[in-house]
Amino acid sequence: MPHIDYYFATISPYTYLAGGGLEEIAAKHGATITYKPVDIMGLFARSGGTSPKDRHPNRQRYRAQDLVRSAKKLGVDFNLKPAHWPTNMAPSSYAIIAAQSSGGGDLAALVQGVLRACWVEEKDIAQDDVIKDCLTAAGFDPGLADSGLLMGAETYARNLDEAIDAGAFGAPFYVVDGKEGFWGRDRLEDLDLHLAGKI
After folding, report:
1. 3-195 falls under which CATH superfamily?
2. Which tens digit of pLDDT belongs to each residue from 43-58?
3. What are phi and psi of 37, to 5 degrees?
4. Strand order in the sheet with 32-37
5. Collapsing DSSP states into helix, strand and coil, what is residue 82?
6. Which of 156, 144, 147, 118 is nearest to 41 (CA)?
7. Separation of CA 158 from chain center
8. Which of 50, 73, 153, 163 could lock 168 by a disulfide, CB 3.0 to 4.6 Å apart?
């Protein structure tokens, strides 16, 4: 059974636009998923990347155009300049880590709920009440937002180290069986073909 380590950031627009594509592909091929939220700014810094605000204006302009076009192509709501971006990714990441450990809810729905809160609903995903609402909506105990802080912090830091070791440099980033990496929403088709043994 193949396994996918899913490195993502809760403030990443491309992670939001990826939607449930990973879960659909995993279900199709009987693959398991470990969700590994990472500090995307730390990942950029350690892998030679640059945060969006520090990129050349040409790159910033293209990114803005590409995000809007992608959202339209996918038929999803999207706010290019949400009110609370960037924000502290750690609290929402800790909650996702705690939810994955505890079980009992829909982890994919939680991840998408957090991303939607940021990119569509104009909510600050660093705020406790927003995180608890996302946990509740996905079938988890909202108390996980408070109880999983220490484990969340340790795992969050370890996820960044593991992302670097796995070859990740952006989000979303998918690694199959610790070897084959796929970067970006637009590589989900390649991930599907790889799991089918075609590439």
Report:
1. Glutaredoxin (3.40.30.10)
2. 999 999 999 999 999 9
3. -65, 140
4. 32-37, 3-8, 173-176, 180-183
5. coil
6. 156
7. 16
8. 163
